Amino acid sequence: MGDRETGYAGLKGLDKAREVINHRILKRDGIDGYTLDADAMEIVAEKEEARFTYKGNKGYMPMLGFLYEAKVCIYDEFREGNASPSFGQVEFYRECKNRMPEGKRIARYRADSASYQAALINELETDFVSFTITCDMDSAMKGLITGISEAEWKEPQKGLGYETAEAVHSMNKTDNAFRVVIKRELPRQKDIFKDTQDYFHYYAVATNFSEEEKDAGEVIKWHNGRGDAENLNKELKHGIGMDYMPCGTIGANSIFFRIGVIAYNLFIGFKRLACPEGWVRHTISTFRWRLLQIAGRIVRRSGAVILKIGVDMEKLRLFKDIRSRAYEISLCPDG
């Protein structure tokens, strides 16, 4: 259930709050064009009204749009568990695009096969967005792979364990043909009753990157970088606690989830803007361990109860530096 489908006023207010926070973070990073990683996240929830997801679990399937370079979630859309991941992909991209600050844009797009849709590919090309999207292994794609000669398969780099080949393809409703990079590798376990040709596992990626921009191996490597979005999903689920939905209605859970997204983005802004540079890769659990989980003991002296905290001078300096930096940001929140 996204903002377009609900009458909950709270969602719209939280959408504005998330937008203000994101704009303040993005204005300080010096980046003009971002990579949007679009991905769905399964939340298992044994609620009476929850629907079964395509994975066979009862729960919800929110869509999330992460900006790879900044790690912020630019837009979230809470959905029923039985909502197809391919539903509303064009509209979701537009919602993400509309929430970019002035002077900044989505320049690149990565997604799985849920985004392999002609309408979305057309819109990305109209907006001059470079994309890599996992292809559906439908009959047309299988026919395309069958037409590739054995001489065309090349190993991008020795020791990778796979080969790549290229072809040009178009869908019934795409405005232009696009490049397809196919990866093939041997499965770990072979079937002795099948021909050698059937041993291979194929994986295809649609892209509008030119060969000069990225060769076949670079396309596969860059596209695999979308796995970082899954790590950000895990941070949101396990670090912020969005793996559990507390309410019995999807409307209330959608508000709870958006509050969680805002908390996640605030954490991203905190560690990118107020903390030492080396801390930007730390997860929430690491922050809790290094900053909040401080050993202490209670002592009684002269009738007073005193909490003695075991903090060394280095950590005290760190607290002071973070506090000073946060204060400086508060004086000029918009950049």
Task: Explain how this protein is built.
The protein is α+β, with helices and mostly antiparallel strands. The protein has two domains: about 1-110 and about 230-295, no CATH class; about 130-225, no CATH class. It contains nine helices and 13 strands. The strands form three sheets. An eight-stranded mixed β-sheet has the order 6-5-1-7-8-11-10-9, sandwiched between helices. It has a three-stranded antiparallel β-sheet with strand order 2-4-3, with no helix packed on it. Strands 12-13 form a two-stranded antiparallel ribbon. A hairpin with an 8-residue loop joins strand 9 (about 165-170) and strand 10. Helix 1 (about 10-25) packs parallel to helix 7. The protein is globular, with a radius of gyration of 24 Å. The relative contact order is 0.13. The model has no long low-confidence stretch (mean pLDDT about 90).
Give the beta-strand count: 13
The count of helical stretches stands at: 9
Structural domain count = 2
**Could you report the average pLDDT, rounded to the nearest whole number?**
88
Largest sheet: 8 strands, mixed
Distance between the termini: 34 Å
| Bulk shape | globular
Reading side by side through the largest sheet, how are the strands ordered? 6-5-1-7-8-11-10-9
Report the structural category: alpha+beta
Order of helices and strands: HEEEEEEHEHEHEEEHHHHEEH
Helical residues, percent: 25-40%
Q: What's the alpha carbon Rg, rounded to whole Å?
A: 24 Å
User: Which stretches are low in confidence, meaning pLDDT under 50 for 5 or more residues running?
Assistant: none
β-sheet strand percentage: 15-25%
